[in-house]
User: Fold these one by one.
Assistant:
Number 1:
Amino acid sequence: MKTATHPISRRRSILIHGLGIALRRFPAFLWTYIFSLALAFLCSINLKLRLSAILDHSLASERLSNGFDLSTIAETFLHLSEAPGGTATTSSGSLSVLLFFILYFILVPGTLFCYLTHTRARLGTLVRRGLFHFWRFVRITIVALIVFGLVLGPLSALEKRWSALIDNRMVGRPAFLLTLVGACFVLLVASLLRLYFDLVEVYTVQLGTMLLPNGKPDRRIRRTFRPAFRTLRTNFFRAWFTFLLLFVLGVAAMFFSARMVVHMLAQPRVWPMFLVAQAGLFLMLFTRFWQRGAEVSLVQQNPIPPHPALEEPSTSISRPAGLPTVLPPPPHAEPEPVLTPDPIPNPEPAPPPLEQPDPGVFHHDPQRPQT
């Protein structure tokens, strides 16, 4: 298994590095956009059939084909439940929401895995790793919904009371600005919570690439809450500023594309409006993946430490009572040779030990005859 992260020695911009991560794993974004477009197309078939049943035989539909009449649109949606298939509205909406969450719980962890481990973003890899982290992301979403309800519920109630107080005491632009301040405060708190749980999801995927002492991947999402809080606390301003900046860029792209679509409603052709609207959705979705890349860059600079048992393995071995303790040999001691008997004895007898031979035997100089 590949190592998910490694400590970064230098502090770098998570905005620029996050963009590089998102561009290098661009197929992950493309697959998400394709599946989202297909899901929107499937969920709009029922709506198209019901609108056709109302407008195909009505002279009032001319106000929509030759122009854009807001009152006609509003009246059409009021009578939408009277069209055939109107009873299936709730079931169709529930099915679309269910499919969206299934798509989210599969593609998002697969994308984060490719971002963290530098793996190629193939569809098989996205689906396989997404299914591996599926139930962990379900648990994180449940915890996030509980925290959002506990925090944003009282804040929303206070914001409503603030708006009512402003409406009773002043009017005009000052009242609008003060009401906008209250709404922006709630939105900022919601963005901060969203950033925190995004970091929890990234740490969960990183933790899934680490093995426990028993050889199994770590599935404990509770181990990610504290590192995510510590990373957000130590990198508060740059993390939150990057998140808000990319959020504003995505909203701005969607706003300008929607404005262009509204100005193109009176045209007889539909495909230019479709392309402009999809361009805005494309850019807004990409800024979300850019946010994910920035969060992955932040986690790579502040990785979660491995399990303590994997850092320094213990040298002490617990032995049952009554057994002798065998001390390990010193680290640089040479092993003692072990003498093993020869399985096949030598058939010849061993030669007897002899003393050194007489040097005169081998070095005898014969005497020469005297002349």
Number 2:
Amino acid sequence: MSDRIKVISAYNGRCGIDNTDLKISRRWPAIGSVVTFTREQIEELQFDPAFMNMVREGLLYIEDMDVKKEIGVEPEDAVKPTIILLDEKSLKRFWKDMPLAQFKVESKTLTNE
């Protein structure tokens, strides 16, 4: 397990966290921006409701599956992630290029996030 944890913004805009108690402040300027945290910071931020809400809702994406299991974002027995990070190409395919019938079938496999 790596000590540096990557957290990627899946939000189409700027977002950030400010936890004055933990002295942690981070900014993601755009979708796809990557910010790294230490394992200890992620363990402390699991008790920050704002950060955890952004992770659970899919606004922020943690790559490391083990970390997601440790902080309770993924079930312990999960093999595949429940939140899937879609890139711009995949989103364009879903919203513009995909026929409606195929969209209905494939969108059922995705979570709300």
Number 3:
Amino acid sequence: MKISVKISPQKEIRAYLKIEKELIILKTARQEKENVVNDDYESRFLGVAIERAAGNNLGNIKDDSVFEERLEILQKEYLHWYYKIAYKYKLPTARILAFIMRLISK
């Protein structure tokens, strides 16, 4: 039996913004390291950003197994919220940005 919990839109938006912040940090670090960004690496940005944002949210857990368990759950929630907010407000996502950039560069 699954219990549904109502999550506030503010929490979802904060999660979206945390992920976007991590995407910017990753992108900046990557561009400082190399001038050329590999398209294969582009597809992995979102997963890494979600992992970092969720991990930052779980700062006070001492037990590694509990941390990993909660991290996995929170990552799924963050991924869901990320696409939910992007869809609701018609925001571009990492999947769409690569396509848009290819169109612009032609």
